[in-house]
Design a protein that fits this description.
The protein is an alpha/beta fold. It has one domain: 4-Layer Sandwich (Metallo-beta-lactamase, Chain A). It is 18% helix and 29% strand. It is built from seven helices and 14 strands. The strands form two sheets. It has a seven-stranded mixed β-sheet. Strands 7-8-9-10-11-12-13 form a seven-stranded mixed β-sheet, covered by helices on one side. The longest helix is centred in the C-terminal third of the chain and has 11 residues. The protein is globular and about 55 Å long.
Length: 265
């Protein structure tokens, strides 16, 4: 049976967000909502279920903006603060569900979460502390959440391995600079690819626009959306029309449909 859902772009900005504190460039001063970028994250929704991809410093604001009433789990791509530091704000979901929040990520990230949020994992945590159950995953093994099969995809962010996720005909990749051939193979025959593109200049740990477009051309998805965008990319209204057919700048609040159980092209 075919399952359908949406991925909502909760945030499409870099670790600083856009506007950047103190910056007076035309992008940071823009009044276009598509130039307002919270820290990168996404929400997977299907059949009344919701799962967050990453849980950064804007998590509370993102959940309120999208009016998220329930959250089944969080998938963490890697341990940088702009992807995990909002984990304390899963507490309202704990209170509503009376259940631990399942957090899926790699053993390395689990170690960092326990270090930064040590008060959660004490033998006798204080009343009201978040309730989190950490679940190990890795690039070699698909996992399942509430009937949804997920294929992890490892990308390299500088020297740091980071996970992306493929769900049926859509994949979400952030903070990539290099993707090995065996991991690229997991991204073939996509309808939609969401992938990071920082700005126009070369960067040591992120794809720039030219590199992201080259990756998209190689993988040939029907559609692609660029995320993790710096204020140095330029104004949405100027850059988006210049992109190749089927490629767009993502923006906060964008909803992208996906299907699961489709026939591959």
């Amino acid at each position: 049976m075919k399952l359908t859902g949406t991925i909502t772009i909760l945030g499409s900005g870099t670790s600083q967000g856009v506007p950047v504190i103190g910056c007076q460039c035309e992008i940071c001063r823009s009044t276009d909502p598509k130039d307002k970028r919270l820290r990168t994250a996404a929400l997977v929704s299907w059949e009344g279920k919701n799962i967050a991809i990453d849980c950064g410093p804007d998590f509370r604001q993102q959940m309120l903006r999208e009016d998220v009433q329930s959250l089944s789990a969080v998938w963490i791509t890697h341990e940088h603060n702009d992807h995990i530091i909002g984990l304390d704000d899963v507490r309202p979901f704990n209170f509503m569900s009376h259940q631990d929040m399942e957090v899926f990520t790699t053993p390395r990230v689990i170690k960092e979460v326990k270090k930064r949020f040590n008060y959660i994992f004490e033998a006798n945590p204080y009343p009201g502390a978040p309730r989190i159950r950490l679940i190990e995953i890795d690039k070699s093994q698909p996992f399942e959440v509430n009937g949804l099969k997920v294929v992890p995809v490892e990308v390299i962010h500088g020297r740091l391995p980071v996970l992306g996720f493929r769900l049926g005909n859509i994949a979400y990749i952030t903070d990539a600079k290099v993707i090995a051939e065996e991991e690229l193979a997991k991204l073939k025959n996509l309808d939609t690819l969401i992938i990071n593109a920082l700005h126009h200049k070369a960067h040591h740990s992120h794809l720039n626009l030219a590199e992201a477009l080259e990756m998209i051309d190689y993988l040939s998805p029907q559609n692609a959306y660029l995320t993790h965008i710096s204020h140095r990319m330029g104004l949405h209204e100027k850059i988006d029309p210049q992109l190749p057919k089927g490629v767009h700048l993502a923006y906060d609040g964008l909803k992208i449909p996906f299907s699961y159980g489709h026939v591959e092209r």
